[in-house]
Amino acid sequence: MDVISVIRAKRDRTPLTDAQIDWTVDAYTRGAIADEQMSALAMAILLNGMDRREIARWTAAMIASGERLDFSSLARPTADKHSTGGVGDKITLPLAPLVAACGAAVPQLSGRGLGHTGGTLDKLESIPGWRASLSNAELLDVLGSTGAVICAAGDGLAPADKKLYALRDVTGTVEAIPLIASSIMSKKIAEGTGSLVLDVKCGTGAFMKTVEDARELAETMVSLGTDHGVRTVALLTGMSTPLGLTAGNALEVRESVEVLAGGGPADVVELTLALARDMLEAAGIHDADPAKKLADGSAMDVWRRMISAQGGDPDAPLPTARHTHTVTAPATGVLSRLDAYDVGVAAWRLGAGRARKEDPVQAAAGVELHAKPGDTVTEGSPLLTLHTDTEERFAGALDALGSAWDIAAPGTTVDT
Ligand code: URA
Question: Which residue ranges does the record assign to the Pyrimidine nucleoside phosphorylase C-terminal domain (predicted)?
Fold first, then answer.
């Protein structure tokens, strides 16, 4: 087998054989295929696609490139959630302890933010002492003792995806449905969860900009999970407006704790409860009421134990930014649009995100929203507050927000 014939086949729209796929994924993981050759193949896949058989085989080969975790020793059924990423998407933080409080075990292997989208691990690392990297034994220990664990995926899990994802990130080949679906599902299947709920985001702040693309991605991932014996369901949710009222690491932890305390923005509470119900259903738990577990403090108890078990202090004050700048409404009326992508880029430029994988992030940086689409604003009232430790970053963030919102005439009805 040689890689050039594989690249030529995909370039000329000939479906890859099972043997070609197995060999390619294995050879790339071993370092026998060069990055420039894999980039050419990834671009050919992006342009010419893959059929369902090819995607299923590619996913299986990525799973086989590493280890698989086994949660069969746990007394509870396992349930996991994956979001395809967005702005202000802190849902994993309240969701994992909530679903654990309802009786499932939630192994939430999460990632870091890249570009304009935030990452769950970056958010949790703003809690003093909290540790993202756990050994497999520690992961099982925290999961067994608290019911939920949120941590980094170990190096042994789908190593082919780690290498390929880093390459796609720098070669303009992220936005290919076969590659996104196989990347996400290889990690989730190797992780060993029994059930999985996918939150497939759609809109300006998401990878998938149209409902059609989001639906195709969702259907592909559900069929991959189902074929591997994981009970998988998907929700399509909007990502044209940021979720909640914060985008940025410590700011989002603060908002998540508000949700766990029974408050928080309505859209965050609503999505947390919807995903919790689907996760419990998929895990076969039919008698729990997540709204009650949020209201009676049980979810908060699990959160505190989960954070402490990973070295964090749930009572420690969260970092606050050295500098803030408030942007005010230029006119009186109804906020009719607040663009998720622009707010995400602003948070990123303030220091909440990174441009390269190895960059540090600022725990306290980000954007706080004072109004959401549908709200009435008056000229001069606060619209957004920008937070950063580096004052010079305000200019770039304000630039990103240049056309981030529209204000319609007073009394206009806005579809939110
Ligand atoms: N998240 C992943 O894990 N992989 C992708 O390809 C895109 C988003």
Answer: 334-408
